[in-house]
Amino acid sequence: MHDATGFKQRIDAYLGRLADEEEAELLRLSGELAPLCAQLRSSLTSGKRLRAAFLYWGWRASGQPDCDGVIKAAAAMELVHAAACTHDDIIDDSRLRHGLPTAHAAFAAGGVGAWEAAAEQPHGHRQDRSAALAMMLGDLLMGYAGKVFATCGLPGAYVARTVPLWSSLLRETVAGEFLEVLRTGGGTSGVAESLEVARYKTAKYTVERPLHMGATLGGASRGVHAAFTGYGLPLGEAFQLRDDLLGTFGDPGRTGKSNLDDLRDGKPTALLALTRSLLSPEDGRLLAKTLGGPRLDEAGAALVRELMEHSGARQRVEDMIEERIARARAALDSVALPADARSVLGALAASAADRSL
């Protein structure tokens, strides 16, 4: 039986030791790096450790035993996630994550906010120092991910065969983020385009690729890899669809993040695309008039949510989530897996997408 709490504690403990070690090294370089150390530690102290769990169970599904080496390899996935979140928060100017200030918000609150650019730059241009510092933190976290994985202690031949997967993971994640930025606020993305963003930005790097990493480390068969794709992509899409609902209808006190950011930005979510497609022309014009822009207030957001409910878009997204969870679970039945791996992956399918609003 998998002890989810114990697994998370092992990942947390390793990341805590890593933060201690890296803080000592950074402060040897300069005491002025203390704010960086504080945000490095903050970046590593929260999360459900889903990506780590998927790598771990990809390894165990290959018939491999529990060991400290795979815990360290799994922790590398959390460093990738921390880096991606740091950069994503800068792009979205999100101020909260897990109920705590995001890195660039924390840097600004600590007195390292905006500075005046050189006088010769036109239009009184200003640069945001806190965003620049947070961007460097994200880069550092991604560098640590590679270091932790490469030195996890598993046989070198096992680690070496994952190199193509690292390239794929980073390429796909950047592609998803890039496409989301291009399509944000445009008002033209349909459901297919929204799901494409979800597939690359979330589904692959959250579920499929960590599973493939663990399976590749463990020497799993092609059949297992194929089943993990059949499981990981629909489950990852369900995860993002649930996140879209939480980002609009969720209680910030429970989700730890704003429920206005996605609406203010006009994020190209499947929820928004479905709403546009289902509304009458008159209601569509009302949505377009209300949605988007930093001045969207609670009253405007409530109207948008009402249109999403009235159109049936919210229920359509719930149906899409359920259909994808069913596909993910069916994929597990297509291949022989150890009983404990099958059981835990089935439970992870529920916990990853059935999060409470």
Write the layout of secondary structure elements.
Blueprint: H1 4-29, H2 34-43, H3 50-60, H4 68-92, E1 96-97, E2 100-101, H5 103-109, E3 114-116, E4 126-128, H6 129-150, H7 156-160, H8 163-183, H9 191-218, H10 222-249, H11 252-255, H12 261-265, H13 270-278, H14 281-290, H15 298-311, H16 313-332, H17 339-353
Antiparallel strand pairs: 1-2, 3-4
Helix pairs in contact: 1-2, 1-4, 3-4, 3-9, 3-17, 4-6, 4-9, 5-6, 8-9, 9-10, 9-13, 10-16, 13-16, 16-17
The sequence of SSEs as H and E is: HHHHEEHEEHHHHHHHHHHHH
Radius of gyration: 21 Å
> What is the average of the pLDDT values?
89
Any idea what the shape is? globular
What's the helical proportion of residues? over 70%
Biggest sheet details:
2 strands, antiparallel
Can you tell me about this structure?
With 357 residues, the protein is mainly α. Helix content is 73%, strand content 3%. The chain contains 17 helices and 4 strands. The protein has helices at residues 4-29, 34-43, 50-60, 68-92, 103-109, 129-150, 156-160, 163-183, 191-218, 222-249, 252-255, 261-265, 270-278, 281-290, 298-311, 313-332, 339-353, and strands at residues 96-97, 100-101, 114-116, 126-128. The strands form 2 sheets. Strands 1-2 form a two-stranded antiparallel ribbon. Strands 3-4 form a two-stranded antiparallel ribbon. A hairpin with a 2-residue loop joins strand 1 (96-97) and strand 2. Mean pLDDT is 89; it is low at 114-127.
